[in-house]
Amino acid sequence: MKILKLIFKNSLRHKLRSSLTILGIAIAVIAFGLLRTVVTAWYSQEKASSANRLIVRQAVSFIFPLPYSYLEKIERVPGVKEVTFANWFGGIYIDRSNFFARLGVDANTYFDVYNEYLVPKDELATFKKERNSCIIGIDIAKKYNLKIGDVMTLEGDIYPGSWEFVVRGIYKPKYSYTDATQMIFHWSYIDERMKQEMPGRAGDVGWYVVYIKNSSQAAAISKQIDDLFKNSPAETKTETESAFQQGFIQASGAIITSMNYMSFIIIGIIMLVLANTMIMAARERTREYAVFKTIGFSAKHIAGIIIGESLFISIIGGLLGLLLTYPLVAGFAQVIPKGMFPIFQVEPITVILAVSAVIIIGIAASIFPVYRTMRTKIVDGFRFVG
Amino acid sequence: MADIIQVKNVYKSYWRDSFETSVLHNISLDVKEGEFLALMGPSGSGKTTLLNLISGIDKPTKGEIYVNSTDISKLGESALAKWRSNNIGFVFQFYNLIPVLTAFENVELPLLLTKLTKAERRQHVEMALNIVGLGDRIEYYPKQLSGGQEQRVAIARAIVTDPIILVADEPTGDLDKNSADEILTLMDRLNKEFNKTIVMVTHDPNAAAKAHTIKHLEKGDLIRETA
After folding, report:
1. Residue B193: is its pLDDT beyond 80?
2. Does residue B81 sit at the A interface (CB-CB below 8 Å)?
3. Which one-letter DSSP state was computed for residue B61?
4. Whole-prediction pTM
5. Residue A291: closest CA among chain B residues belongs to which residue?
6. Could you count the other beta carbons within 10 Å of the beta carbon of residue A218?
7. What is the pLDDT of residue A382?
8. Structure ipTM
9. Which residues of A touch B (CB under 8 A)?
10. Can you tell me the distance from the alpha carbon of A289 to that of B87, in angstroms, rounded to the nearest whole number?
């Protein structure tokens, strides 16, 4: 008989109570896992950022466009390898709930700069040739059952009218955190129609994406670009792609912060649930611990028995919660609008945090019962009536 | 026979809130090796307190207690725990077995503190359970045993480390007459056959009759001794 066996048997002494505690911990870990997944999903775009990419946008606000004429000037800045641009199209595909990014881009350069979107060569070549073509992410293709040659019709809002695009390519993500939910088409196709229907909006691009040779020169190049357009009607603000994404995240900062706090409040709740169980268990066993002490078990041994039981319950609950988190997150990923969180999966950091939390909670929840048991004299332990 | 227990001018008092309650007053007694001593007296006379002091689970307020030449009143908590595991076997009124452990596992508990191998532990446990006549009940849980059998398992647990002294606090107090007789016979056998020094607290004159010496306490004083 080993102490571990005693810990195991003690844990199962009150099966209903232990089961409910384990279930409570599992549910809390699931809630923690889901909240953390939302938070990490929010930050996933920042993670997908390249250190070699700079974003050039209108200095006043991202929503104001930049002239197409800036392209050549930016290309000439020393240290710049390639420049592409994009424009937020918006629009509605089938109905408003089908949210995903729709971008008009420079078809010739966009996939060079965003080389994490893996497009077969022949599909990319066809896309470049056909002005009304588009390339879509594989997740979009799967969700709407789209294949090469299908036509996607968008109802424009920022760019009014009905817009038809022929699917000529489907890209796959290079990394697990690469967004596979974008629809990408020719900016020139949009601009051509603008010239005819709304000439005042022609020649505008949303933002430039600058691929630089050396990421350590990001700050200097950004300054050079911004200096080029100082005192112009459309001054620029150039920053790394990561900083650009952070700007978006900060706009939702209060929600993210509250979710972060909530996830850790849940950890506190788990601790209270487990601590309550451990306090009851230790109180009920006051006489038994007195017996252990009497026959020679030291304070260290008894602390080990109590902490071991607390850890056993918290780890079983934590593992159960983690195991259930995966299918639940996958289920949520299916029901939330595709594109709201392009990457919605349980990240390793969430697992590490959850496992660390249950271990810390297992130990923390046993501190009071251990302290109380240590303080109780043998003679008082035998007199105890629970 | 040499004195194995020497209690010298021991006082014991407890603080309850801000009140000091004196339990033992200037107690001195000697117990010889192999002796079977019974401590008798009315409730509150201090007999269990004296037993606790002799067995090292409580400390005197004043005075000295030598057991096997060691002044246990000077030992720290961890040293005292180790000393108890090596020298004392305990038998309680309510058996105090661990309900989730089998008879075998309960008896094995004190041996987990030793360096014995698993096989050696098994040998010791089986021997102890055979001595108390429960060799065929090793896989039984306490709730599957009668009160008398539970107490015999508790005695097996007390003797499994081969301590020099057995202390028993009302070992028959919770048992019917037949079971109590079995336990007393067993303790008598442990004293005579295995030369265990026994200090037993009891209210029961029949139980005390098994002892070589009976010391009577009243209101914290040793008032008389009968042989």
Report:
1. yes
2. yes
3. S
4. 0.71
5. B96
6. 22
7. 86
8. 0.90
9. 1-3, 5-6, 9-10, 12-13, 287-288, 291-299, 301, 377-379, 382
10. 19
